[in-house]
Amino acid sequence: MDQDHLNNAARKTWKFGRLRSLFIVTAGATAVVAGLTAYKKQEQMFRTFVMPVVRLLPAETSHHLAVLACKYRMCPVSQYQDDINLHTPFFGRLLSNPIGIAAGFDKNAEAVSGLRDLGFGFIEVGTVTPVAQEGNPKPRVFRLSNDRAIINRYGFNSEGHQAVLQRLRLLRSREDFNGVVGVNLGRNKSTMSPIADYVQGVRVFGPVADYLVINVSSPNTKGLRDMQNKDKLAELLEQVNNARSGLDTNKKVPIFLKLSPDLSLDDMKDIVWVIKRKQSPVDGLIVSNTTVSRKNVESNELASQEGGLSGPPLKARSTEMIAQMYELTGGKIPIIGVGGVASGYDAYEKIEAGASYVQVYTALVYEGPNLVADIKAELSSLITQLGHTSVQDVVGTNSKFYLPKK
Ligand SMILES: Cc1cc2nc3c(=O)[nH]c(=O)nc-3n(C[C@H](O)[C@H](O)[C@H](O)COP(=O)(O)O)c2cc1C
């Protein structure tokens, strides 16, 4: 054989090798995409296979994976069509349904589009602090599996205002995104001026958020909850309102105040006094954050972990407090009800206690993404079965039932 012939043979073998690799890569990629597509439709797979495996991982690792799955749109796209009785007005917008994801899941606004795919009617990102900070040392999240609850002491781990702002701006520039996104504002651990941190939050996010949340109720930042005290709260809300008035935007971004479930009735009365003043009003309340109480989980070996407890052990207290705030405000201030919601029935209870909207977090960790559609379907049929035509019809219809028994 001469040299040319050898070269030709080598070239042919090389070409064939490349074609074969190309074929394998293409076939592999097609199989992965087809698998993922089919997988996305196999919602049951999440409940029976993915969620139990995810729960074997440390809680914070699972949390990161879940955020990544939403970020890269690898979670199932909900096929559930929201019934018209779930459509709910929200400060000039119309939510397709009143079920939102609570703060703390998507702290840095990375997963908003994926969370919309799951079927949430609105999304709250944060808590965001002005400057990036790491939060508390790990481990700082614990699953109390027997109680389907969580204790967390993340301590406002945040990428900071600017990183979150960039992501939200990008989202707003996309033509296919018209979702309702709230931004939950916090303060840095070692700030010299806590009020200034919130004021800065209003200025930075006012122009891009559909609502803002003043979070003074997380139990994991020293001194934070003291800002719920009458005088401090009055000053904080006055400055927050001034900052909003100074925004160079046409719309007035609604401001919500997120409360702790550990407040006494007197504390709540003080808060209502503050938010009724014309200098320090809020447009809505979020009831509630996590609790430092360990009622209902006393026998759990993880109960002694420091941090805020969420999930079913918090449910009754949060519903009771919704009813209390609904009564104290005469039903005039919309409430987002959150704490232990794991079914459409739970959501219905929050609404008849006085909530206009409902948020979920901990149950999603245990049940997986199909939970959102399950809650909506059950809530929708309860509304109809009980003779109502919309979520709004139900708000506060049974608030007295949930008030503390004398
Ligand atoms: C792991 C974890 C992190 C949380 N982080 C925040 C947060 O950053 N800001 C906030 O306002 N609430 C945060 N929360 C509280 C939730 O938003 C919600 O108020 C509380 O968990 C009650 O709802 P649930 O029982 O459905 O979880 C967090 C909750 C959990 C479980």
UniProtKB/TrEMBL annotation:
Molecular function as annotated in GO: dihydroorotate dehydrogenase (quinone) activity
EC number(s) stated in the UniProt entry for this protein: 1.3.5.2
Record's cofactor remark: Binds 1 FMN per subunit.
Dihydroorotate dehydrogenase catalytic domain segment(s): 86-382
Gene Ontology biological process terms from the UniProt entry: 'de novo' pyrimidine nucleobase biosynthetic process; 'de novo' UMP biosynthetic process
Keyword Oxidoreductase: yes
Cofactor(s) required, per the database record: FMN
Superkingdom per UniProt: Eukaryota
Pathway recorded for this protein: Pyrimidine metabolism; UMP biosynthesis via de novo pathway; orotate from (S)-dihydroorotate (quinone route): step 1/1
Transmembrane segments: 21-39
Keyword Flavoprotein: yes
UniProt catalytic activity: (S)-dihydroorotate + a quinone = orotate + a quinol
Subcellular location: Mitochondrion inner membrane
Gene Ontology annotations for the cellular component aspect, listed alphabetically: mitochondrial inner membrane
Membrane topology field: Single-pass membrane protein
Signal peptide: none
Swiss-Prot/TrEMBL keywords: Flavoprotein, FMN, Membrane, Mitochondrion, Mitochondrion inner membrane, Oxidoreductase, Transit peptide, Transmembrane, Transmembrane helix
Family membership: Belongs to the dihydroorotate dehydrogenase family. Type 2 subfamily.
PANTHER family on file: DIHYDROOROTATE DEHYDROGENASE (QUINONE), MITOCHONDRIAL, DIHYDROOROTATE DEHYDROGENASE (QUINONE), MITOCHONDRIAL-RELATED
Protein name in UniProt: Dihydroorotate dehydrogenase (quinone), mitochondrial
Organism: Drosophila kikkawai (Fruit fly)
